[in-house]
TrEMBL record:
Residues 19-180 form the N-acetyltransferase domain. PROSITE patterns: GNAT. Pfam families: Acetyltransf_3. It is an enzyme of class 2 (transferase). Gene3D superfamilies: 3.40.630.30. GO terms for molecular function: acyltransferase activity. Transmembrane segments: none annotated. Its EC number is 2.3.-.-. Keywords: Acyltransferase, Transferase. InterPro entries: Acyl_CoA_acyltransferase, GNAT_dom, N-acetyltransferase. This is GNAT family N-acetyltransferase.
């Protein structure tokens, strides 16, 4: 897959009807820690099913910041427009899980906002940006097998389950969405 380049656009913010996404910046470190400390979230992001150690969250945070510097897009911190409440992080980032560079749709939502369609709403905006602005050929999403809510989000967007891979020492189902399939929707 050819890596989409960002040479002309400012992707620091992204919005939907109910949400606003902002480029992750250094002051957001505490919000990422807050997200990863949530036991329900940790069950889907941690190999032990418990919150990640602070050092690992810091490493992931630094990787997110570096991705933005290198590519000009990445993961956004998302907030509810009406209350400015932090709801989670979502966006696209390059990953190489099985020896191939792939553009990944990634999302994690605070449990208090589950079941409101916010992950689907924000992820739809991110997928549209990836295909329309970044000119991505395809996207992948990695979801732990027992996280049916996240699987439903991916499937609503048109992603199809492809195979199982190990990522961060945790088994995931890899989902894929090709541009041609997205355009048919």
């Amino acid at each position: 897959m050819t890596r989409p380049a960002n040479t002309m656009h400012d992707y620091d913010t992204i919005q939907t009807d109910r949400l606003k996404g902002q480029r992750i910046e250094l002051p957001d470190r505490d919000l990422l820690h807050q997200l990863h400390r949530e036991p329900s979230v940790a069950r889907t992001l941690s190999p032990t099913g418990t919150p990640l150690p602070s050092e690992q969250v810091d490493e992931r945070f630094d990787e997110i910041i570096e991705h933005w510097k290198k590519h000009g897009y990445g993961l956004w911190m998302w907030f509810e427009k009406s209350s400015n409440a932090f709801i989670g992080r979502m966006g696209v980032q390059w990953t190489n899980t099985t020896g191939k560079d792939e553009l990944e749709l990634s999302y994690a939502i605070m449990p208090g906002f589950w079941g409101q369609g916010l992950a689907t709403e924000a992820s739809t905006a991110v997928v549209n940006l990836a295909f329309n602005d970044l000119n991505a050929d395809e996207l992948v999403a990695f979801i732990v097998p027992n996280h049916t809510a996240s699987q439903r989000v991916a499937e609503k967007l048109g992603f199809k389950a492809e195979d199982r891979v190990t990522r961060y020492d945790l088994e995931h189902v890899r989902y894929r969405l090709k541009r041609a399939d997205w355009q048919k929707q």
